[in-house]
Amino acid sequence: MAGSGSSMLYSFLLFVVILSLQEMYRGKLASSELFTILGGFTSSVIFLILLTEHLRFIGNFQETCGTRTGWGAVILAEAVALIAASTVHRVCITTCFLFSAGLLYELNKLSGMALSKSESKTKRH
To answer: Which of 54, 57, 60, 110 has a Cα-to-Cα distance from 9 of 20 to 30 A?
Structure first.
């Protein structure tokens, strides 16, 4: 398993590669309706990458300080993803927001399942 530092580096490199490819193929992504939807989806993947790495970084900070961040990380990651989507096409902003909302819902559901599993293991022991 990768350490926290190398995981953050890989995530940053993935962010840069996706953003660079999105900017390189900006004309192609804006050329048709289907590609515009694909441009919004790639921006929502940027949202997911930023959110997971930001939460990992903030989670380490929370352990030391004992505070909670709440929606700040989500809003920051969504703002960056929407700005990236706006460089491609106006419709990409809307599709990015919708895909990001779906990904956030699934991430929350997955987190809830993992939390309930970990709580059930601690109650048995």
So the answer is: 110
Residue type, 67: T
- Tokens representing residue 66 in the block: 């004992």
Residue 37 to residue 89: CA distance in whole angstroms: 10
Q: How far apart are alpha carbons 113 and 104 in whole angstroms?
A: 14
Model pLDDT for residues 102-123, shown as the tens digit of each residue: 999 998 899 888 888 877 777 6
- Look-up of token digits 């515009």: 36
State the Cα–Cα distance between residues 101 and 74, nearest whole angstrom.
10
As given in the structure block, the two tokens for residue 65 are 């300080």
Tens-digit pLDDT profile for residues 39-79: 999 999 999 998 888 766 655 555 566 666 678 788 989 99
What's the per-residue H, E or C state across 72-110? HHHHHHHHHHHHHHHCCCHHHHHHHHHHHHHHHHHHHHH
Contact 43, 88 (CB under 8 A): yes
**Identity (one letter) of the amino acid at 113?**
M
Torsions phi, psi of 66, nearest 5? Answer: 80, 25
